[in-house]
Design a protein that fits this description.
The chain is built from 4 helices and no strands. With about 90 residues, it is mainly α. The two termini are about 40 Å apart. The mean pLDDT is about 85.
Length: about 90
């Protein structure tokens, strides 16, 4: 640990002054949204909505020992997470 701090006590080499403190700057531009991926996400959300309606119908029509949110909530949460990750990347 101490050898790492010893470099701060020595004056910097003249070459460090010539090139400055910032060696390089790279700007990363975000990618534009992909229309195919947006269409795929829309289809997935439509499938999630259909599944939600089917689960709600099944839970109300037949006696089941659990609440419908035990199935619908994780599906909605993972769909929301996947959509958020996609939109965060673009």
């Amino acid at each position: 640990m101490l050898p790492t701090f010893s470099r701060f006590s020595d004056p910097p080499a003249p070459a460090d002054y010539e090139r400055g403190f910032v060696a390089e700057v790279q700007v990363i531009h975000p990618q534009p949204p992909n229309p195919r991926m947006q269409r795929f996400l829309l289809i997935c959300w439509a499938a999630i909505a259909i599944k939600h309606v089917a689960v709600i119908y099944a839970c109300r029509h037949w006696p089941v020992p659990f609440h419908q949110l035990w199935i619908n909530a994780p599906t909605f949460a993972l769909g929301l997470l996947a959509t958020w990750v996609y939109w965060r990347r673009t």
